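Q: I'm writing a short explainer about TonB family protein for a general audience and would like to include a description of its predicted shape. Could you first generate the structure from this sequence?
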Amino acid sequence: MKARWLFLVAALLTINPATADWWQATTAYEEKNYVTAKRLFNALIPLGNEDAAFNLAAMNFNGEGVNPNKVMALAYFMLAEELGRQDAVDLQALLLSQLDAEQIADAKRQHEQLRLDVKIWPKDRYDSIAHTDAPTAIKRPLPKYPKDVANTLGYVLVRILISEDGSVQAADVVDTYPKNTFERNTLRAVKRWQYEPSDKKHVKIVHMNFTVPNHLLSREVEKQIKQNLLWEGALMGSPNHQYLLGSILNLNHIQSGVHLIVQEKQPAPAELNLDSFKHNDGVRARIDGFVGTALVRVAPDGRILEQVKANFAPQSEVTDLVGLTLSGDIQTEQYFLSKLPGIARKAVDVRPAVAVPRELSANYWWDQAAKNGNHEAQRTIAAYDRRWESYLLEQQDPVVMAWTGTKMILEGEREKGMALLDAAIAKKYEPAAELKKHLM
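A: Of course. Here's the predicted structure. Afterward I'll give you a sentence or two in plain language.
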């Protein structure tokens, strides 16, 4: 029996009180409670969980909790491959050699039925939600650092509604680490922010970081991960550990100042190692007229040799960076340059670009946690990803209903948007009432 290092599991806010996560499902399977395991694995299929599909295929093949059924095993292996399990291909080939034409046709029909249950498809069908269409902040008082958590590192991700006059009318936390630490002071500060006036309201997501000068961040992050066994728990499939690991890796990424290039096919590290995040932040670029973002390859003396990827804003006076020079202590071959429209400073933001395996990125673990049933991860991703936004709307999640309803109203779908806000209010989500008041 695997060791159990679970944090308390928060109840999922869905219309169906019977919820499941990967840890519960695999625990039931290991205890040979196959009826429960089958039910829990099936509950993960709508989340696009390829491992659940693979396990259901194996259970049908082995006759665990069901009569042996090679037709259904093939159907589930086909679904597992479609969702991302490439090792299901060879097992399909094995079954295809054992089934006749009629059985194979039946398996394909069963596969098409199984596909109807999937709500979250892989990221090649990713539909991101943009949050960049918003005015520039002209006044941003910082939140007070709580006295009772001295020397604590953290961040708060906040979603806000900006009025036509530039004031912040409503705000709520999308994600934070650590929990119950910086949220209250951040919300108080954000509601005093002022943006440039515009001709409409806007929804925007802002990031607030809480740093400690001269703090060895990566060392502290590694310490927290090891103390809470987050790495081991995440690798073993605990969605709560995966969500928390994603949050603390996000904290490390934000405060390290590096630009991550996630290598999807790079082998996972055997042990946690955050050395890739330790870089000198003294590299600078003074490129007058540059507006946009660019990933560049540089020589040891700082000369830009190649634009690996560039996205110049329409107002950028510079469209070719090759031959220009970065100054400072060059420690890596690639750097990420950015300067957003409306930023008055002349200096370009320069970040070392480092390649890391997906297991060192926050998004990978949040995605795993969401597919494995963690509701907080699903909500966090839903702020950026329409797949999860649509799924949580179907589940009548009050947070997603409120903010999606707000966006719909701003985009002209007033009746549908108000209906979502009213539904969120009925579910006692407090910011929904505040949002509605400002949208009447």
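A: For your explainer, you could say: DSSP finds 16 helices and ten strands in the chain.
Q: Perfect, that's easy to follow.
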